[in-house]
Design goal:
Length: 521
């Protein structure tokens, strides 16, 4: 048994939850559930990012006090976690006292190590991204300057504390390139993101070789107050990304490193969207290294969804509401589709046509039919009682080749966050079983070879138990129903229990359909 710590980004409370939020947390949830079923101790963290100018402005626009506003919107993210079936172990809010204490402790540590100095900031800032940009990164349209993300920027000039980021950049570059498994490695995936981060730093080091302090990071603001106060200088609030990133250690108990939770740090994987890779792979490990703390092992950046081929945006009015999707298609089909349709790490398109095709073809036709056909035959031809195990013949070999390799095969894919390949591994095993049932034709064996019919049905049952077991992290409710129909006791649904067969003679309940079909749009 080992410990595993997985995190989602903490979400801005300037707006209600959308598909992007549901997606990052879903991937994290599946990995967390998988590791628990594999017998490990898991800490899965999500939460909300509640400080900064962007949230302050959203509260003003809503005519609300920022605390009351964040209380309200933060709750909608907790509700999303319930609706989506997320199994997070904690939900952190950056306005909580434990978090403010952790930020201030980290700041004090950095200051005591000489990593922070007071200066003045002058430069371009995008409130929407809560990020600073260099002049050569900007484009201009109608007299307004924009960041590469499309967010408008404004010139900011104010006193500010700086973090000595520049001096840590060569060390970060060294760590990105350490061999896999090296304890100091900062693992960035997919590979394309790692290269992107490396060349960004290399360019910075080249451009500012003469003036390395220009690579330092402004980490406080005086022009607004909605944030964590800087210890010893309350005219300043901390830069919202320093505040936000710290959440990952707050929840692990920081600054109390004797806390029970601290055993989980460093995190195994920070799940993030591709737009926030820089913050997690440059700023965050640099803050931690400077404070003498270990950094996370791996950062995985997923891609962005478009909606029926179009960029998702509030102004286009095509934001996908995860709650409405769940309402229409049911939770588990939505969970399945989101991780199955698009290779995790790449951009992908959401369309109702693709959703219906996936759900009909793979869940209703392949998996659902296999279960229904097998379990109906056991009802009809075996009196609803599970037949005994029997030796595997050559004809059974192909079926079991995929079944026996299933847990290890899926786990290897999940350890790379290749959710789509993990599901492809299961689906290819299910297709194997569908081929097996067609060739073996147990319905015909009833008249010709009752003994073989029993063996075939038993083998199919064994195979389906394995499929349902490994699919639990993806579709918890439906797979619980499938395991009920297969007569698998509730305490025998982890991976280790696959070695313990369901006893022959177990009475199985009458089967009921697990999945429904949808009109292809
Ligand atoms: O960035 N498809 O919060 P956030 C997929 N508070 N993912 C999408 C998406 C889309 N169309 N749109 C957004 C923040 N996302 C910070 C994080 S962590 C210390 C602080 C993803 O609410 C996006 O990539 O703006 C990001 O990972 C996540 O939604 C949260 O975004």
């Amino acid at each position: 048994m080992s410990t595993h710590y997985y995190t989602t980004p903490i979400y801005y409370v300037n707006d209600k939850p959308h598909i992007g939020h549901a997606y990052t947390s879903l991937a994290t949830d599946v990995l967390a559930r998988w590791k628990r079923l594999a017998g490990h101790e898991v800490f899965f963290l999500t939460g909300t990012d509640e400080h900064g100018q962007k949230v302050e402005k959203a509260a003003q626009d809503a005519g609300m006090d920022p605390q009351a506003f964040t209380d309200q919107v933060s709750q909608s993210f907790r509700d999303l976690a319930v609706t989506m079936g997320f199994s997070n172990d904690d939900f952190i809010r950056t306005t909580e006292p434990r978090h403010k204490a952790a930020c201030q402790a980290l700041w004090t540590e950095l200051a005591s190590r000489g990593e922070i100095y007071l200066g003045a900031y002058e430069g371009w800032y995008a409130v929407r991204d809560e990020a600073f940009y260099g002049p050569d990164e900007l484009t201009e349209r109608d007299g307004v300057k924009y960041a590469p993300s499309g967010a408008p920027v404004a010139w900011v000039k104010e006193p500010s504390y700086f973090f000595r980021l520049g001096k840590w950049l060569p060390e970060l570059l060294r760590r990105y390139d350490l061999p896999e498994g090296h304890p100091e490695r900062i693992d960035i995936a997919p590979e394309s993101r790692r290269n992107e981060v490396k060349s960004f730093i290399q360019q910075g080091l080249k451009d500012f070789a003469e003036t390395p302090q220009k690579l330092d990071l402004s980490i406080s603001r005086t022009s607004f107050t909605w944030g964590v106060k800087v210890p010893g200088d309350e005219a300043h609030v901390m830069y919202v990304w320093l505040d936000a990133l710290t959440n990952y250690i707050t929840a692990a108990g920081y600054p109390d490193v004797s806390a029970e939770r601290w055993k989980f740090w460093p995190a195994d994987v920070h799940f993030v969207g591709k737009d926030i890779v820089r913050f997690h792979t440059i700023y965050w490990p640099a803050f931690l290294l400077a404070a003498g703390l270990p950094h996370a092992r791996r950062v995985f950046a997923h891609g962005w969804w478009t909606n029926e081929g179009q960029k998702i945006s509030k102004s286009l009015g095509n934001v996908i509401d995860p709650l409405a999707l769940v309402e229409e298609y049911g939770l588990d089909p939505v969970r399945y589709f989101l991780l199955r349709e698009v290779p995790f790490g790449q951009d992908g398109d959401f369309s109702k046509g693709a959703l219906a095709r996936r759900l009909n073809g793979e869940l209703a036709d392949a998996l659902g039919n296999l279960a229904n056909r097998t379990l109906s035959l056991i009802q009809r031809n075996c009196g609803g009682v599970l037949p005994a195990e029997a030796a595997r013949t050559e004809a059974d070999a192909a079926l079991f080749a995929s079944v026996d390799a299933l847990v290890a095969g899926v786990e290897a894919q999940l350890d790379q966050q290749a959710f789509h390949l993990a599901l492809e591994t299961v689906m290819s095993a299910v297709r194997e079983a569908n081929g097996y049932i067609t060739v073996q034709a147990p319905w015909a064996l009833k008249k010709t070879d009752l003994e073989r019919m029993n063996v075939v049905l038993r083998h199919l049952h064994t195979a389906m138990r394995a499929y349902a077991t490994v699919l639990q992290p993806f579709m918890p409710t439906t797979m619980a129903a499938m395991l009920d129909q297969l007569g698998v006791p509730a305490d025998q649904r982890d991976f280790a229990s696959l070695a313990t067969p369901v006893p022959a003679g177990t009475a199985l309940p009458p089967p009921a359909p697990l999945f429904r079909k949808f009109e292809a749009a």
